[in-house]
């Protein structure tokens, strides 16, 4: 109901605004049109009467005198010849026996609108006074032309009002219909969205084929649904994998403790305690990874400082225990802005991954490149197939080789490393190399000067 009410509210407001604006513009346009029409009809009647009077005066000057006065082609049929006191001495057949249209008095020219009661509508009367004529001295030759009904104020106002009402009705109907048709894709999107639940995130809203804003809206909604579906899938996979990864060390730890408790008091407990400690360390590593993912997902802030990436890399390498030999090429004073704790975690994860897959050696490089700090970790292992390079950065995703080399891994190290890199405006990718895997971390160079 709310969706429908909102839609009709939008349509109603848009239609009302359109009708009001149209009413103002149409009222001005029709008012101007009415004025032009009225003047045009009046000028037409005036021209007819003037032409009729001029032709009559020409005939009278030639000595023609007749009663009734003949009406020529294109002339007005309301003709009178009057004395100055208003006595009609000659008239056209239609005006015989009618009172004077206008009492001339002593005027020389008549050009006015009259509305005598014996005519069904008003007329425009034009007259010229003749000093000498075949009808006598000082006579007024008059001709009248009936004015169209539209020249009257009330008739013209009524017509313009009807036209305005008709136009506004048409504009309102068309606006209402056009907005309704335009909002249909939104209605379909809303209806589909109302049916989507957490259990059916695979559904998508219909995409209008008309293009424009609504198509982009549908594409955006579908992209959002795709991301939600991916997030839900990752969450389900996270729950399943985390449960599995936690269950194994917990079960092993419980078994070892039960065995230790069931054995005689003089039993050597050191091997069991050492195995239990290993399980506890594994549990701690899993929990640390899960907590780091939770912090990254929640965008939890951590202290940022300007640090030397080369120095941090050297320190992380020196802290490592026995493993594959590492050669370094570290350009000095390559400074970035990041959390040293998180950046150390990225280096730790990359070096652990390289140590796990390398055959005999690892190479680490830090250098500046085009306004960025670039760190490369290269191993001489079997490498990562090009079509699998993005998959290794998915949470809990582990390639067969990785499972074989480290069956107890969680598949979170590389995803955490990439997300930390992206938090600080950088990237972590796998690039081509002659042999082995080549992980490349880029971060923006720090703009502030190094601290003394």
Radius of gyration: 50 Å
How many distinct beta strands?
A: 12
* Poorly predicted ranges: none
Rounded average pLDDT:
79
CATH fold descriptor of the largest domain: Beta-Lactamase
Give the proportion of residues in helices.
40-55%
Overall structural class, as computed from helix and strand content, comes to alpha+beta
Largest sheet: 5 strands, antiparallel
Q: What is the CATH architecture term of the largest domain?
A: 2-Layer Sandwich
CATH class category label of the largest domain: Alpha Beta
What fraction of residues sit in β-strands?
Answer: 15-25%
The tally of helices reads 8
Order of helices and strands: HEEEEEHHHEHEEHEEHHEE
What is the approximate shape?
rod-shaped
Number of domains: 3
Span of the ends, CA to CA: 66 Å
The main sheet orders its strands as 2-1-5-4-3
């Amino acid at each position: 109901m709310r969706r429908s009410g909102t839609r009709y509210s939008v349509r109603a407001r848009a239609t009302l605004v359109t009708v009001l604006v149209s009413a103002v513009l149409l009222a001005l346009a029709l008012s101007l049109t009415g004025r032009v029409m009225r003047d045009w009809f009046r000028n037409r009647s005036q021209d007819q009467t003037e032409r009729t009077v001029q032709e009559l005066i020409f005939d009278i000057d030639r000595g023609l005198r007749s009663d009734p006065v003949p009406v020529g082609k294109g002339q007005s049929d309301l003709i009178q010849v009057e004395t100055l006191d208003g006595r009609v001495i000659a008239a056209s057949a239609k005006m015989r026996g009618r009172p004077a249209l206008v009492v001339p008095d002593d005027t020389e020219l008549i050009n006015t609108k009259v509305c005598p009661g014996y005519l069904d509508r008003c007329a425009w009367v034009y007259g010229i006074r003749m000093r000498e004529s075949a009808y006598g001295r000082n006579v007024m030759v008059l001709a009248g032309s009936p004015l169209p009904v539209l020249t009257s104020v009330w008739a013209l106002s009524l017509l313009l009002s009807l036209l305005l009402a008709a136009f506004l009705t048409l504009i309102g109907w068309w606006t209402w219909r056009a907005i309704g048709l335009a909002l249909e894709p939104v209605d379909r999107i809303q209806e589909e969205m109302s049916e989507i639940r957490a259990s059916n995130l695979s559904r998508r809203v219909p995409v209008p084929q008309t293009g424009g804003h609504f198509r982009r809206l549908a594409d955006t909604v579908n992209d959002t649904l795709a991301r939600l579906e991916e997030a839900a899938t990752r969450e389900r996979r996270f729950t399943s994998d985390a449960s599995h990864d936690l269950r194994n060390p917990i079960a092993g730890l419980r078994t070892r403790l039960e065995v230790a408790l069931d054995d005689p008091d003089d039993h050597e407990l050191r091997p069991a305690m050492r195995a239990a400690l290993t399980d506890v360390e594994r549990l701690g590593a899993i929990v640390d990874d899960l907590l780091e993912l939770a912090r990254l997902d929640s965008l939890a802030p951590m202290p940022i400082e300007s640090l030397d990436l080369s120095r941090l890399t050297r320190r992380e390498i020196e802290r490592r225990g026995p493993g594959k030999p590492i050669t370094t090429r570290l350009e000095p004073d390559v400074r970035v802005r990041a959390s040293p704790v998180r950046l150390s975690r990225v280096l730790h994860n990359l070096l652990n991954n390289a140590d796990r897959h390398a055959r005999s050696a690892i190479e680490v490089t830090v250098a500046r490149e085009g306004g960025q700090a670039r760190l490369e970790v290269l191993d001489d292992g079997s490498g990562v197939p090009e079509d699998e390079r993005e998959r290794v950065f998915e949470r809990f995703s582990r390639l067969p080789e990785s499972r074989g080399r480290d069956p107890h891994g969680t598949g979170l190290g590389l995803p955490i490393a990439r997300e930390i890199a992206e938090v600080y405006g950088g990237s972590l990718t796998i690039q081509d190399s002659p042999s082995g895997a080549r992980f490349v971390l880029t971060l923006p160079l720090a703009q502030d000067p190094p601290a003394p």
